[in-house]
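Tokens as discussed.
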């Protein structure tokens, strides 16, 4: 790089590779209809009252939002069973992950990260000059908490855990986390990214609120982008101890969520419960249909607890995804996560899923024909 003066740590950070947008694919491929199942969005959002509240909020955009986020913190507290003082707001969960990095990481600190998980943990840690200790997955697709335990050291500052895990959709066992709490030094923190937690049967999730009440060093990171259907409004939050929330709010930039996002999130929680539950049950039902659909095509899906399904295809995932893109279906190849023959496919509406399965089936047939020639 020819620019001078950039921090050394910044030069180590890899740019985030987002899923393709519908507009990009329409333009690149000259297609009129594109189905986007590559970014784990919720096809049913924004819900009607949220849409109304966000539209009404437009006329107030000349003024800053409430810097203390009083109302939205109260609504999230009611949802989680904790108090408002246990909630911090952010610009998407991504903003909270960045703030957590800034809050805890000094150069030379160690962070523990499972080898195939959400990529931002690694880049944020590198940006702060921390040393990344990678823990291989267990049985290919599962976060290995015992493996994390084995690499704990006095230098461990953060243990980044995603439950359910992106891209595999798996959850880890609830008891394993207790071992980490028992063994980790008092200055280590478990970051539980539960961005997809609402799609999971609660019996598979850890009871993060009770860990916080017990005074464990844990932060739960959550978002309105997935189950609540507000990815474009960019609002996320965390749950943590009262003491830590003061620190996190201090490190966050002021006004780090916007009026539209706050209005949408509030209305979703207060007035869109019915629509939200309907969307959740629709997604869960379709998730099962996708799993069966993949099995019927001779593929190996992994049991998912999120709004996407990870599937082993036996072909190069990047090539397969590219061929599907030509037919107007965006899915996510998992080559970058070291799964060269897998796809991560978001659960869409029944119609979107139907078309995706059809396109996948045709594409696999084309590839099988190529192999047999
Ligand atoms: N965590 C995980 C595991 C994710 O997959 C994502 C987004 N795909 C995020 C956090 C960030 O979500 P957002 O910033 O949209 O809230």
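Sequence:
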């Amino acid at each position: 790089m020819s620019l001078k003066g950039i921090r050394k740590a910044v030069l180590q950070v890899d740019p985030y590779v987002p899923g393709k947008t519908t507009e990009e694919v329409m333009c690149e491929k000259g297609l009129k209809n594109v189905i986007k199942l590559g970014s784990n969005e919720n096809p049913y959002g924004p819900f009607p009252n949220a849409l109304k509240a966000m539209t009404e909020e437009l006329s107030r955009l000349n003024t800053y939002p409430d810097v203390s986020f009083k109302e939205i913190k109260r609504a999230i507290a009611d949802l989680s069973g904790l108090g408002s003082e246990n909630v911090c707001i952010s610009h998407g969960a991504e903003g909270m992950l960045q703030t957590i990095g800034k809050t805890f990481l000094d150069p030379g600190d160690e962070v523990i990260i499972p080898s195939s998980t959400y990529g931002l943990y690694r880049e944020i840690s590198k940006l702060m000059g921390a040393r990344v200790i990678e823990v291989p997955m267990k049985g290919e697709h599962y976060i290995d908490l015992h493996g994390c335990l084995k690499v704990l050291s006095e230098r461990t500052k953060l243990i980044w855990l995603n439950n359910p895990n992106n891209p595999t959709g798996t959850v880890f066992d609830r008891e394993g986390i207790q071992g980490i709490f028992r063994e980790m030094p008092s200055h280590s923190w478990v970051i539980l990214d539960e961005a997809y937690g609402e799609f999971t049967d609660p019996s598979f999730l850890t009871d993060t609120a009770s860990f916080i009440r017990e005074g464990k060093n844990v932060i739960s990171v959550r978002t309105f982008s997935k189950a609540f259907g507000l990815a474009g409004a960019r609002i996320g939050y965390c749950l943590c101890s009262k003491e830590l929330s003061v620190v996190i709010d201090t490190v966050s930039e002021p006004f780090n969520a916007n009026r539209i996002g706050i209005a949408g999130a509030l209305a979703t929680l207060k007035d869109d419960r019915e629509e939200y539950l309907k969307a959740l049950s629709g997604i869960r039902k379709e998730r099962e249909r996708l799993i069966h659909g993949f099995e019927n095509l001779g593929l190996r899906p992994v049991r998912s607890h999120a709004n996407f399904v990870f599937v082993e295809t036996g072909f190069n995932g990047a090539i397969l995804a590219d061929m599907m893109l030509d037919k107007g279906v965006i899915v996510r190849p998992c080559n970058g996560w070291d799964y060269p023959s897998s796809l991560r496919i978001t659960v869409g509406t029944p119609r979107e899923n139907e078309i995706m399965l059809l396109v996948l089936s045709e594409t696999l047939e084309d590839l099988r024909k190529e192999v047999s020639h």
